[in-house]
Design brief:
Blueprint: H1 5-8, E1 24-27, E2 31-34, H2 36-57, E3 64-67, E4 75-78, H3 80-95, H4 98-109, H5 114-121, H6 125-145, H7 154-159
Antiparallel strand pairs: 1-2, 3-4
Helix pairs in contact: 2-3, 2-6, 3-6, 4-6
Length: 188
Protein backbone atom coordinates (compact mmCIF):
# COMPACT_ATOMS: atom_id res chain seq x y z
CA UNK A 1 0.00 0.00 0.00
CA UNK A 2 1.29 3.40 -0.90
CA UNK A 3 0.77 5.79 1.98
CA UNK A 4 -0.37 9.33 1.31
CA UNK A 5 -2.75 11.79 2.90
CA UNK A 6 -5.80 10.64 0.96
CA UNK A 7 -5.77 7.04 2.19
CA UNK A 8 -4.53 7.79 5.72
CA UNK A 9 -6.74 10.69 6.75
CA UNK A 10 -9.83 8.52 7.10
CA UNK A 11 -8.06 6.20 9.53
CA UNK A 12 -6.32 8.85 11.58
CA UNK A 13 -7.26 9.86 15.07
CA UNK A 14 -8.47 13.46 15.21
CA UNK A 15 -6.75 14.19 18.52
CA UNK A 16 -3.41 12.58 17.56
CA UNK A 17 -0.47 14.69 18.71
CA UNK A 18 1.98 13.30 16.13
CA UNK A 19 0.02 13.93 12.94
CA UNK A 20 -2.67 16.35 14.09
CA UNK A 21 -5.37 14.23 12.43
CA UNK A 22 -3.74 14.26 8.98
CA UNK A 23 -2.76 10.59 9.12
CA UNK A 24 0.80 11.04 7.85
CA UNK A 25 3.86 12.55 9.46
CA UNK A 26 6.95 13.95 7.83
CA UNK A 27 10.25 12.21 8.53
CA UNK A 28 13.45 14.21 8.17
CA UNK A 29 11.52 16.93 6.27
CA UNK A 30 11.63 14.77 3.15
CA UNK A 31 9.55 11.62 3.40
CA UNK A 32 5.96 11.07 4.49
CA UNK A 33 5.11 7.97 6.53
CA UNK A 34 1.84 6.82 8.07
CA UNK A 35 1.28 7.91 11.63
CA UNK A 36 1.15 5.30 14.37
CA UNK A 37 -2.54 6.06 14.94
CA UNK A 38 -3.23 5.01 11.35
CA UNK A 39 -1.27 1.78 11.74
CA UNK A 40 -3.18 0.95 14.92
CA UNK A 41 -6.47 1.62 13.10
CA UNK A 42 -5.42 -0.75 10.30
CA UNK A 43 -4.64 -3.43 12.87
CA UNK A 44 -7.97 -2.93 14.62
CA UNK A 45 -9.90 -3.18 11.34
CA UNK A 46 -8.13 -6.42 10.41
CA UNK A 47 -8.49 -7.86 13.89
CA UNK A 48 -12.19 -7.00 14.02
CA UNK A 49 -12.65 -8.96 10.79
CA UNK A 50 -10.58 -11.80 12.31
CA UNK A 51 -12.96 -11.97 15.28
CA UNK A 52 -15.95 -12.02 12.91
CA UNK A 53 -14.33 -14.89 11.01
CA UNK A 54 -13.77 -16.81 14.24
CA UNK A 55 -17.45 -16.39 15.10
CA UNK A 56 -18.49 -17.48 11.59
CA UNK A 57 -16.14 -20.46 11.45
CA UNK A 58 -18.25 -22.38 13.96
CA UNK A 59 -21.31 -22.33 11.73
CA UNK A 60 -20.10 -22.23 8.16
CA UNK A 61 -17.17 -23.54 6.27
CA UNK A 62 -18.01 -22.29 2.82
CA UNK A 63 -15.85 -22.84 -0.22
CA UNK A 64 -15.53 -20.03 -2.73
CA UNK A 65 -14.61 -20.17 -6.39
CA UNK A 66 -11.68 -17.92 -7.21
CA UNK A 67 -10.26 -16.97 -10.56
CA UNK A 68 -6.52 -17.39 -10.77
CA UNK A 69 -4.17 -15.49 -13.01
CA UNK A 70 -2.05 -17.12 -15.60
CA UNK A 71 -2.18 -17.66 -19.31
CA UNK A 72 -5.21 -19.94 -19.05
CA UNK A 73 -7.01 -17.99 -16.33
CA UNK A 74 -8.21 -21.07 -14.47
CA UNK A 75 -10.29 -21.28 -11.36
CA UNK A 76 -9.49 -22.62 -7.92
CA UNK A 77 -11.49 -23.31 -4.81
CA UNK A 78 -10.60 -21.71 -1.53
CA UNK A 79 -11.83 -21.14 2.00
CA UNK A 80 -11.44 -17.41 2.43
CA UNK A 81 -12.46 -17.31 6.10
CA UNK A 82 -9.98 -19.97 7.18
CA UNK A 83 -7.26 -18.52 4.92
CA UNK A 84 -7.73 -15.05 6.44
CA UNK A 85 -7.47 -16.39 9.99
CA UNK A 86 -4.36 -18.37 9.10
CA UNK A 87 -2.80 -15.35 7.38
CA UNK A 88 -3.36 -13.18 10.48
CA UNK A 89 -1.70 -15.77 12.74
CA UNK A 90 1.21 -16.49 10.41
CA UNK A 91 1.99 -12.85 9.65
CA UNK A 92 1.93 -12.03 13.35
CA UNK A 93 4.28 -14.90 14.18
CA UNK A 94 6.65 -13.87 11.40
CA UNK A 95 6.61 -10.14 12.20
CA UNK A 96 6.71 -9.98 16.00
CA UNK A 97 9.46 -10.79 18.46
CA UNK A 98 8.89 -13.58 20.99
CA UNK A 99 7.76 -11.22 23.77
CA UNK A 100 5.46 -9.28 21.43
CA UNK A 101 3.98 -12.50 20.07
CA UNK A 102 3.18 -13.68 23.59
CA UNK A 103 1.35 -10.40 24.20
CA UNK A 104 -0.53 -10.87 20.91
CA UNK A 105 -1.52 -14.42 21.84
CA UNK A 106 -2.56 -13.74 25.41
CA UNK A 107 -4.20 -10.34 25.07
CA UNK A 108 -5.68 -10.43 21.56
CA UNK A 109 -6.21 -14.08 20.64
CA UNK A 110 -7.04 -15.58 24.05
CA UNK A 111 -8.76 -12.44 25.36
CA UNK A 112 -7.05 -12.23 28.75
CA UNK A 113 -7.31 -8.93 30.59
CA UNK A 114 -4.25 -6.81 31.29
CA UNK A 115 -3.89 -8.00 34.90
CA UNK A 116 -3.63 -11.65 33.87
CA UNK A 117 -1.22 -10.79 31.07
CA UNK A 118 1.02 -8.77 33.37
CA UNK A 119 1.11 -11.64 35.86
CA UNK A 120 1.82 -14.23 33.15
CA UNK A 121 4.52 -12.13 31.45
CA UNK A 122 5.85 -10.85 34.82
CA UNK A 123 5.82 -7.22 33.72
CA UNK A 124 4.22 -4.02 34.96
CA UNK A 125 1.17 -2.28 33.51
CA UNK A 126 3.05 0.54 31.74
CA UNK A 127 5.45 -1.79 29.94
CA UNK A 128 2.58 -4.11 29.00
CA UNK A 129 0.54 -1.37 27.31
CA UNK A 130 3.63 -0.08 25.50
CA UNK A 131 4.00 -3.62 24.14
CA UNK A 132 0.32 -3.67 23.12
CA UNK A 133 0.70 -0.40 21.18
CA UNK A 134 3.92 -1.64 19.55
CA UNK A 135 2.19 -4.89 18.51
CA UNK A 136 -0.70 -2.94 16.99
CA UNK A 137 1.66 -0.65 15.07
CA UNK A 138 3.91 -3.42 13.76
CA UNK A 139 1.05 -5.65 12.69
CA UNK A 140 -0.92 -2.75 11.17
CA UNK A 141 2.05 -1.92 8.98
CA UNK A 142 2.62 -5.58 8.10
CA UNK A 143 -1.06 -6.17 7.24
CA UNK A 144 -1.23 -3.11 4.98
CA UNK A 145 2.11 -3.60 3.21
CA UNK A 146 2.02 -7.38 2.74
CA UNK A 147 2.84 -8.39 -0.84
CA UNK A 148 1.37 -9.48 -3.24
CA UNK A 149 -2.01 -9.57 -1.46
CA UNK A 150 -2.33 -7.33 1.60
CA UNK A 151 -4.71 -8.13 4.44
CA UNK A 152 -5.86 -4.51 4.48
CA UNK A 153 -8.20 -3.25 3.06
CA UNK A 154 -10.22 -6.20 4.26
CA UNK A 155 -12.86 -5.85 1.53
CA UNK A 156 -10.19 -6.24 -1.17
CA UNK A 157 -8.92 -9.43 0.49
CA UNK A 158 -12.36 -11.04 0.45
CA UNK A 159 -13.35 -9.70 -2.98
CA UNK A 160 -10.80 -11.87 -4.74
CA UNK A 161 -9.11 -9.24 -6.91
CA UNK A 162 -6.62 -10.61 -9.39
CA UNK A 163 -3.23 -8.96 -9.74
CA UNK A 164 -1.56 -9.66 -13.04
CA UNK A 165 2.05 -9.27 -13.97
CA UNK A 166 2.84 -6.17 -16.06
CA UNK A 167 2.45 -6.84 -19.77
CA UNK A 168 0.40 -9.98 -19.24
CA UNK A 169 -3.03 -8.37 -19.60
CA UNK A 170 -5.05 -10.11 -22.26
CA UNK A 171 -7.00 -8.24 -24.89
CA UNK A 172 -9.93 -9.56 -26.80
CA UNK A 173 -9.90 -9.35 -30.59
CA UNK A 174 -7.11 -6.79 -30.73
CA UNK A 175 -8.89 -4.05 -28.80
CA UNK A 176 -6.65 -2.17 -26.38
CA UNK A 177 -6.84 -3.05 -22.71
CA UNK A 178 -9.35 -0.87 -20.84
CA UNK A 179 -7.36 -0.90 -17.57
CA UNK A 180 -10.14 -2.15 -15.30
CA UNK A 181 -7.62 -4.14 -13.25
CA UNK A 182 -5.64 -1.01 -12.39
CA UNK A 183 -5.99 0.11 -8.83
CA UNK A 184 -7.96 3.31 -8.40
CA UNK A 185 -6.39 5.92 -6.12
CA UNK A 186 -8.27 6.41 -2.87
CA UNK A 187 -9.49 9.82 -1.86
CA UNK A 188 -10.94 11.19 1.34
Amino acid sequence: MEWDRSNAIGLSKVACLQCGGAGVRTIWKVKEAPCNCVLRAVFRACFTRYRECVALAKYSSSVSLEFSHGKDGGRTYGRKIEEYMADICLVSKRTLSEEEHQVFRFYFLLGADWKQCCKRLSTDRGHFFHLVYRVEEKLGKAFAELEPYALYPVAAYFAGTIKRAPGSARTSEGYPEQGWEDEMPLSA
